[in-house]
Amino acid sequence: MDGFINILKPQGPTASDMVVRLRGILKQKKIGHLGTLDPGACGVLPIAVGKGTKLFDFLVFKRKKYRAFFTFGKTTDTLDSFGVLVEEKDFVFDKDAMKNALKSLEGVQMQIPPAYSALSVNGVRAYTLARKGVSPDLPPRRVEIYSLDLVRQVEEKVFCIDIECSGGTYVRSICRDVAQKLGTVGYMSGLIRIASGKFSTENACTLKEVEENPESCVLPLTEPLNELPETIVEDRFYKDLSNGVKIPTNMSEIDLCRVYCKGEFWGLGRNENGFLKLVYYLR
Q: Which domains does the chain have, with CATH numbers?
């Protein structure tokens, strides 16, 4: 079984928990998620199966879309609703100030990850250090926030925010940074991932649906790759392609393209000095 499962993760289990469950259902050793999702969050969790795992590096940093809920005036050690309250500060809602704060965070920036994260510090998970009372030294990471939009005020100090950002962006950190610009503190009180690359809630399936009919939930290897151009290798080069022999090509020097020969999908390749190179071999 090769391809992807666009699973709809419920609130509670970790992304790794979902992988373990699916490994048991599918009896598949090669399986992994394409970008973690906090236990308290729900929504799209793309799962790679079989040869799909070879595309991890290509897909994991694709754009993400979230609907988040930010609570201002108080914060927790984990920057979400599952942590311990550590600070309270005055907050009075001003719509213009809120919109300006959100707008100021759009674009490329160096973001400091939350202390409670799965990032490693000298081989130790940051959250392990944080639980011991040690502040992990996490260097800022380059991220890009494409849009931050105020949807509505849910309660006096709770707001619904739509976010589109690059992979690797921490929404909890966005909340922290917005709060700082507003002169207060805050935490993420809810999170739904609406989309991850080409995977969205519209075409996601539940764990129960996978259990009942796994084959119908597995998407083909090409599903998240349709945005890429394709190149057709002449049939006479079939054996050369099979043996890894360099094949001359006149395709434009684009980043990546889908490679086909005799109607078969071979993977992703690019033009390197006039020759086709398979970067992701998926046969």
A: 3-62+198-224 (3.30.2350.10), 64-196 (3.30.2350.10), 228-281 (2.30.130.10)
